[in-house]
Specification:
Length: about 350
Amino acid sequence: MSKKAFDHPVATNSSGLTWSISDVERETGLGKDTLRVWERRYGFPAPLRDALGERAYPDDQLNRLRMIRRLLDADHRPGKVVSLPLEALQDLLSVQNARDPHPQIKRKVQTRPKTNSVIEPDSFSKDNEDVWVGWLKRDETHQIKQALQQNILMHGLGYVVENLAAPLCRLVGQAWMSGDISVYQEHLFTETLQSVLREAIASIDAVVQTRGCRPRVLLTTTPNELHSLGLLMVECHFALAACERFVLGTSTPISDIIQAVERLNIDVLAISYSPYASRKEVLDSLQQLRTHINDAVDIWVGGAGAYANRRLLPEGVELMRKASDVSDQVAAWRSRHGRQ
C-alpha cells in the first residue's frame, strides 16, 4: 500500500512534543471546528501531521493559541489576532494587562488569605477577590462550592447568578489571562460553578411544578458554539420564572433546533453566543432559524457574541442584554398571551 500524501509536514520525534486537536481543545477551550476554520481562513494554526495523518500541534503553536484565547477573553476579534506573530500577541497581552479591561474586578495585592478563610454571603468585593482566586490557585474548589451555596441560601439564585457568578467568571478569566491560574484550574472553577447552579435548578424544580407552564422554552447553542455556562445562567432565570424548559446543550445543528421547536411545541427559543462566535456565525444561524421557525415562536438571544452584533440582528430576534432580563421578558410574553 502506498503511503498517503499530505499537504502538511509530517510530525516526527525530532520535532519535539506535539498535541492532538483534542488536546488543544482541552488546553485552550477553543473548539475543534474553530481551529479548523482558522486554519483555512487565517493560515494559523498550521498543524503538522502524525503517522496516521491526524493533526499534530507543536508546543509553540499551542502557546500562541493560549495567548489568542486570552485576547479573545478580553473582547479582541479573531480576525484581528489569530494571524499575528508571537511577538505581536505578547505586546497586545502586555497592553491588555496594563489596561485591565474589567477595572471593577481588578485584584488588589494583599497578603495571602488563610486556607480556612470564609467569605460572608454578601461580601463579594475588591477586598476579597484574592480569597476566591487563592482558593482556585490552591485547588480548594470545595471552598468555592460552599461559598456559592451559602450565597444562594442567603440571597437566592437570581441574585447569585447576576451579582456573584457573572463577576466571578470575569475575575477567573482575568486571572487566567494574567497567567495566575492554569487552564485546568479554570476548568475546575467552571465545573464547580455549573454543578452548584444545576443543584439549585433541581431544588427549584422539586418544589415548583413547571410541567405545562408557559412559555415552553428551548435552550441551546448553534453549531461551533461550545460554551455552556452562559446558557446555564439563563436557564436559572427561566427556572425561577417557572417556565417549562427543554435543554439541548451546545453546538446543536440548525436542522435539529428547528425540528425540536416544532415537535416540542416551543414558545421561546433561547440561544447564547460567547465572545468567540464570529459575526457571520451569529447572523447566519439566526437568519436561518428566523426564516424556518414559525413567527409565533419568539427567538431570544444573549451573550457577548449576540450583544456585539446587536445592531445587525435579524428582525424578529430579541436581545437579552443580561441573564436577569429573562424575568421581564417572560412577564411580557405572558401578558401578551393572556397568561399570569
